[in-house]
Write a structure and sequence with these properties.
The chain has 116 residues and is mainly β. Helices cover 0% and strands 50% of the residues. It is built from no helices and 11 strands. Strands 2, 4, 5, 6, 9, 10 and 11 form a 7-stranded mixed sheet that branches. It is globular, with a radius of gyration of 13 Å. The termini are far apart. 33% of the residues are buried.
């Protein structure tokens, strides 16, 4: 059974930073691209970033380029998302997703709230 458990969310002021983590189990992590997606209040799921199997090439949505960094630790089966220069519009539930795009499986999410 695929399990994805996100952590690291919280309340942060505009301009602040957070680091999200996703612990993966139940599948061979190293064999899959991994993604982050988010859902803002009242909106649908939105792709944020994908990292390839080897972790060499990341892809980002235009609205996070230069501010967010995706990474992975294949030895620890963990996916990360470093969020810098946060804006109020980044407020959302952030989900870890197995595979590209919106993913084939997602975790329960972690809430990120950006507010002064």
């Amino acid at each position: 059974e695929v399990q994805l458990v996100e952590s690291g969310g919280g309340l942060v002021q505009p301009g602040g930073s957070l680091r999200l983590s996703c612990a993966a189990s139940g599948f061979t992590f190293v064999n899959y691209a991994m993604s982050w997606v988010r859902q803002a209040p009242g909106k649908g799921l939105e792709w944020v970033s994908t990292i390839t199997i080897g972790g060499i090439e990341p892809f980002y949505a235009d609205f996070v380029k230069g501010r967010f960094t995706i990474s992975r630790d294949n030895a620890e089966n963990t996916l990360y998302l470093q969020l810098n220069s946060l804006k109020t519009e980044d407020t959302a539930i952030y989900y870890c997703a197995k595979d590209v795009g919106l993913g084939t499986d997602r975790g329960q999410g972690t809430q990120v709230t950006v507010s002064s």
